[in-house]
Amino acid sequence: MRMAQALSWRILALAAIFVTSVSAARAENRPTPPNILFLFADDQRADTIAALGNSVIQTPNLDRLVKRGVAFDRAYMQGAMQGATCVPSRAMLLSGMSLFRIDEKLKRDQTWPNAFGKAGYTTFMTGKWHNEPESIPLSFQNARSVFAGGMTDPMKAKLSDMRDGRLGKPIVAPKHACAVFADEAIRFLADHKSGPFFSYVAFDAPHDPHIVPDVFSIRYDAAKMALPPNFLPQHPWDNGEMTVRDEKLLPWPRTPDRVREMNAEYYRYISYLDSQIGRILDALDASPYAKNTIVVFSADSGVARGSHGLIGKQNLYEHSIRVPLIIAGPGIVAGKRTDAMCYLFDMLPTLSRMCNVPDPKTSEGRDFSATLTDPTVQARPRLFFAYRNVQRSLSDGRWKLIRYPQVNKTQLFDLQTDPNETTNLADRPEHGAKVRALMRTLAFEQEQFGDNAPLTLSNPMPAEWTPLKPNQQPGGKTSSAKSVKVFILAGQSNMEGKAPNELLESQANDPKTKDFFAHLRKDGKWIVRNDVFIKFLDRKGPLTIGFGSPGRTGVELEFGTIMGDHFDEPVLLIKTAWGGHSLCKNFRPPSAGLPSEEALKKELEQAQETVRRNKKMAPKGDDITGRKYAPMPTMDDIKKPYGLSYRNMIAEVKDVQEYYATMFPELKGKSWEFAGFVWFQGWNDQYGGQNEYASNMEHFIRDVRKDLNASDLPFVIGVMGQNGSKPATGAMLTIQKAQLAMSDVADFKGNVKAIRIDVLVDKDAEDLYPTWKENQERWKRTGGDHGYHYYGSAIWFNRIGKAMGVAMLELMNNRKSQD
C-alpha cells in the first residue's frame, strides 16, 4: 500500500514538472508585447513635414520616421467647445472618447494609459499636461518634467515631477522645455529594465510663442517664405471666433510680410522640435527596445497662420483640424501613405489591438490597425467636426461641408480638386442637392455624437464683421489716458434690488448697524458719487441709494462704491434686470438655440389649451377680462419670448455705448472700456430650466463676450443663495452647482468667478422672517420682502455687492498679470 502511494506521488511530481516545463517553454516562445513611444506636438500643421511634400521646411528626423512607417494624410482632431483646443483634443486622445462625451479633466473615466498600465505596461509621461494636474496619476505611473498649463515661454518653463501620486513644486527649467522633455524620454529609455512600456512625450511646440535657442542653426528667410495658398487678409465673415487670443497675434488686415515673418518663426520652431525628436529616436535605436517599439508621431491640432485670413486654430478648415500622423514599428509596412480617415481618439484603440490591451469601457475609438499592414484599407467613411456652437462640419473625404449657424453661412468644398478650400461651391445651383444631402448627414452625425446644437437659427446674426482699428475700444472710441470703466449688471428681480430705502435709512441711524453703512454716508446723508454713474432702464444719474426696484436699492450701491474707490477713471454701471426672467427662456443666449421642436410643440399645445379653458370660463355677455376674445397662440408666439431679454440687454448696452456722452455729460471725451460683467439670477430656472442651466450659462458668457466684442471680459456670477444658512436641495442645488462649475470651465479659468451668496446671509432677517407678521414693527427695521428676494435685507444685499466687487477686482488683476 505504501509503495503504491509513493509511486503515485512520484508520478504526480513528474507530471507537475512536465507541465511547468511546457508552460515555461510556451512563455519563452510567446512574443513580447510591443512598446509604445508616443511623440505628441502642439499646434503642428499636417503640411509641415518635408517627406510629405513640404519643400521648404527641414524635418530630417520626422522624414526618417515617414520612411519607416505609414503616414496618414487624413487624420483629424474632432474639434473643441472652447478656444484652448488642446484641452479637449488631448482628452479625446487619451480617453478614446469623442468631443461631446469627454471629461476634459480626465478624472471621470478610465484612460487608455491607465488601461495599458493595468495590462502590465510601465507607463510614463513628460511634457505638457493641460487636463488638470490631479488626473496625471490616474493615467500614468511615472511623470517627470511636467508642464501643467497651456502655454509659456519655453526658455522659462516651470516643470514638476510627480512623487507619491502628486506633482511637486514647479521649478524653472534650466534650458528649452523641448530639450528637457527629450532628456526625460531618453532617461526613461536608459532606466527601463524589463517588460513593455508606454512612453508619452507631449511637447509644447510649436505652439506660440515661437522661441528657439539662439544657437540653433536652422533659420528661414521670411522674404523667401511662400504665403499659404489660401492666404486672405481677413476672413470673409464672422466665423463666431474672430477676436479670440490667437486671432489677435497679428493685426487686421493680415499683411503678406507679417504672415511670412510669423511662418518663418513657426517653421524654425518645428525644425527645432524635429531635432529633439531626433535625439529620442537615436536613443531608441541604440537601446534594446529598437526592434519591438511602435513609434507614433502626431499633434493635438493644426493652426491657420494666415490661411483664410485666420491665425489660430479655432476653426474647422483643414489647416486647423487635420493633424500629422505617422506610425512605425514591428508589423507595420514601411514608407507608405494612406488616405484612410480617422480621428485622434482612434489611435490608442488601434495600438491596443496590437498590444492585446483590453478597452476601457467608455472608449469609442475605432481600430484601424488593418490599415497599418495594408494602407489601402479604409478606416472611417466620414468625419464630423464641431467648434463651440458656431461651426459644424462634415467630410466624406472628397466633399466637405462647413456650417456657421449663428450667421446662416454654408461652405462646400471639393477636397479632391480644391484641397486648400479656396472655392466655396455651396451657393452654386448645380451643387444644391449635394449641400442638402450633406446637411442631412451632418444632422445624423450630430445625433450619433450627442450634439444637440441647431444648424439653423430663426434669428441669425449679421455675418459682416469689421475689425477694430489699432488703439480702438469696442464702440469706436479711441483709447486715451482717461477711459470710462463700464460694468454691466444683469439678471432678474434680485439684480433689480429689493432692499427698501426706508430700511437703509433706519439701519444707517441704528446704533447696532450704523457702522455697517458708515462708509456710504457723509454728514448724515447718503453719498452721491461724482465718479460713479449708473443707468438702470429709464433711470440714470450719479450713484447713490434708490437705483433698485422703485423705492429700493440693490447690489449696485456697494459694488459701484468699491469700483469707484479702486479706479482713478470714472465708472459707469449699466443695469439690465427684469423680474421673473429665466435663463432657459427670456435670457436664453443665441448660441443655445431654441428648445427642441417637440418641446416647443408641447408648450404650444399647453398655451392653446389654456386659452380654450379660459374662453369656457369667461362670463356671458360683455367680458371685461378679455378672455373670451383672446387669440389662439401660434408657434411664433411661443418662440418670441426665447432670448428676448438677452436681446434687450445687449440692445440696452449698445444704446448706452452710443449715447453715453449725451446721457452723462461728465463722461464726454472719455473713451469707453468694457471692464466687467456681473450676473445675479436663477430663481425662475428652478421651474424646468435647472438641468440645462450649466449649458445655457456657458453659452451666455461666450455670447455676451462675442456680442460686446470683449473676448476675455471678466465675469462674476452671484450664485443663487436664497437657502441662506440651510442646505440647498432639489432644483436650487442643481442651479448652484451649475453656476459654481463655470469657474472650472477650461477657458473661463481666471476670467470667470462664481461667488456663494448663501454664506453672506443676514441671520437676523432670516430668523425673524417666519414671524414677521406678528412682529411688523421690528420687521420694518430688519427686512422688507420675502425669502426669494433675500428678505429685502439691506445688509444681505450690501454684502453681496461687496463680494461681487472684490471678486471683480480679483479677475481684473488676473487679466492684468497675464497681459
Give the SSE map.
Layout: H1 2-29, E1 35-41, H2 60-68, E2 69-76, E3 79-80, H3 86-95, H4 112-118, E4 122-129, H5 136-139, E5 142-148, E6 158-159, E7 162-163, E8 166-167, E9 171-172, H6 177-191, E10 197-202, H7 256-285, E11 293-299, H8 318-321, E12 322-328, E13 336-343, H9 347-355, H10 369-373, E14 383-387, E15 391-395, E16 399-404, E17 409-414, H11 432-449, E18 483-491, H12 493-496, E19 499-500, H13 501-509, H14 514-517, E20 521-522, E21 525-526, E22 532-536, E23 539-542, E24 552-553, H15 556-566, E25 571-577, H16 597-617, H17 635-639, H18 644-663, E26 671-680, H19 693-707, E27 715-719, H20 730-741, E28 752-756, H21 763-768, H22 776-780, H23 794-818
Parallel strand pairs: 1-10, 1-11, 2-13, 3-14, 4-5, 4-10, 18-25, 18-26, 22-25, 26-27, 27-28
Antiparallel strand pairs: 2-12, 6-9, 7-8, 11-12, 14-15, 15-16, 16-17, 19-24, 20-21, 22-23
Helix pairs in contact: 6-7, 15-23, 19-20
